[in-house]
Design a protein that fits this description.
Layout (H helix, E strand, L loop, with lengths): L4 H5 L10 H4 L2 H6 L7 E2 L11 E4 L7 H17 L3 E2 L18 H6 L4 E9 L5 E8 L9 E7 L4 H17 L7 E9 L2 E8 L6 E2 L6 E7 L5 E6 L6 E5 L4 E3 L8 E6 L6 E7 L2 E7 L7 E2 L5 E7 L5 E6 L8 E4 L2 E2 L7 E9 L2 E10 L3 E8 L6 E2 L7 E6 L5 E6 L6 E6 L5 E5 L4 E7 L9
Parallel strand pairs: 1-25, 2-3, 2-4
Antiparallel strand pairs: 4-5, 5-6, 7-8, 7-30, 8-9, 10-11, 11-12, 12-13, 14-15, 15-16, 16-17, 18-19, 19-20, 20-21, 22-23, 23-24, 24-25, 26-27, 27-28, 28-29
Length: 444
């Protein structure tokens, strides 16, 4: 079950979260009643009002100003919460660093919120960053105003932090764009681990292209844990600390298929190959103190809830289509639908469980429920393959891989407005989304 496990990994759902989507048995789902998956959240029968927002244009040629303004505007577009007014409709006027905002003129264009951001070089050698926001219906006094100095190398992350602060001022809940992704993607014949900013910028491969790396997860102190196989050997647990790759001394001789950490990064869960399937073990982040917690013959893809609950995919490797989401060892997803890749979203309305299910026509849809599986609703419906959901740190967005419209990539769905937008053309597995470490200087 060790050296010969890797070929099996690519051909059957019984042993790996990596292959769950590729070989999911849709025949059982075809016979199941899709009404069990709940109502589709986007019915088209009710047109929700989408607030209009103005992100003021800039005529400054400075790279830092162009970068700041472009990132903030793109983040707000990706949030799905606003209809961003086109630059072409901007009223005549001055848009320099110190020029005032023509609140009344933007209000006449229908702007329900107004944002201005600007950046310029400072005498100190740093970059001066400025952000301000208004609610025209409230008055001409800003609801947010901030000026700070940052190093030139930090302008991108500062831009995301400014967006998060602006969203906090406008909505009462800070955004989640000061964050990053990690996922496993195909590179030639193998899979590698990639990291990427929340807006799709700075895509970086992190692992050896000659090895197969899968199932990454953010670990303690912003490290990245993952499983790697060398020349078809069992998958071992490694950690990337930003400088070097470190072997984690997990007490298992068989393959490790996936890894997850709790909210405080003090507990680690592993999906481990066993003689007739796989099991979930939980222990310390250094691999010590591991104890088996699952009871299903097949157990893979662990995921911790912010409340401390642990989900995984459980089933019977001898019964195709039996894979369901288990939370604390209890099945919570509908029977008859092959489930995969559970994750949790800490939303304004409480913690939500999101996962994919195989449906008729060899497709996979995303569904959402509470932590116990109740109140289930469909997030996608018969739109090709939608898999590996990941939630933004603020709980208002879901990112997932989709090949809808023959345009594969990462898509964002707003859990506030139910709008979907494509981020980029990356496609892979095991998508994870985490906040960046807190800023060490003055926060936006």
């Amino acid at each position: 079950m060790q050296v010969k496990l890797f070929p099996l990994l690519l051909s059957t759902v019984a042993v790996s979260s990596v292959a769950v989507h590729a070989v999911a048995d849709t025949s059982s789902s075809a016979a199941a009643d899709e009404a069990l998956l709940g109502e589709y959240v986007v019915t088209g029968t009710v047109q929700e009002h989408i607030p209009k927002i103005a992100v003021l244009p800039s005529l400054a040629p400075d790279l830092e100003d162009v970068t700041l303004r472009g990132i903030v505007r793109r983040d707000i577009e990706l949030s799905g919460m606003y209809d961003v007014i086109s630059d072409s409709k901007a009223p005549p006027g001055l848009y320099g660093f110190n020029d005032p905002v023509a609140v009344d003129e933007w209000r006449k264009l229908g702007a329900e919120a107004i944002v201005k951001v600007a950046a310029r070089k400072h005498a100190s050698g740093k970059i001066e960053v400025f952000g301000i926001a208004y609610f025209p219906s409230v008055g001409k006094d800003p609801v947010y105003e901030k000026s700070l100095l940052v190093d030139a190398k930090d302008i991108r992350v500062t831009s995301h932090r400014i967006t998060d602060a602006l969203l906090g001022a406008l909505t009462g809940r800070p955004g989640g764009f000061a964050s990053h992704f990690v996922f496993s993607g195909k590179w030639g014949k193998n899979r590698r681990i990639f990291s990427m900013d929340s807006d799709g910028h700075d895509l970086k491969p992190l692992t050896d292209p000659n090895q197969t790396a899968i199932a990454p997860a953010w670990g303690p102190q912003d490290t990245i844990f993952y499983a790697e196989s060398k020349n078809y050997s069992p998958f071992k647990l490694l950690c990337w600390d930003g400088v070097k790759h470190i072997n984690i001394a997990a007490p298992f001789k068989t393959s490790i298929y996936s890894v997850a950490f709790d909210k405080d990064r003090k507990r680690m869960a592993l999906a481990v190959a066993e003689k007739l399937g796989s099991s979930i073990y939980v222990g310390n982040t250094d691999g010590s103190g591991m104890k088996k917690v699952s009871s299903t013959p097949l157990s893979t893809h662990p995921a911790f809830s912010p409340s401390g609950k642990l989900a995984w995919i459980g089933g019977n490797p001898k019964k195709r289509g039996s894979q369901r989401v288990y939370v604390d060892n209890k099945p919570v997803s509908p029977a008859g639908f092959t489930a995969a890749a559970p994750t949790f979203c800490d939303t304004e309305d409480g913690i939500r469980l999101v996962y994919s299910v195989a449906v008729y026509g060899d497709k996979q849809d995303l569904v959402m429920s509470d932590e116990k599986g109740q109140g289930i609703a469909r997030l996608t419906r018969n739109q090709a393959t939608n898999k590996y959901p990941a939630c933004s740190p603020d709980g208002r967005l879901i990112a997932f891989f989709s090949d809808r419209g023959k345009k594969p990539g990462i898509y964002f769905m707003s859990l506030k407005r139910w709008r979907t937008i494509k981020l980029n053309g990356q496609f892979g597995e095991s998508l994870r989304w985490e906040a960046l470490p807190p800023a060490t200087g003055a926060a936006p």
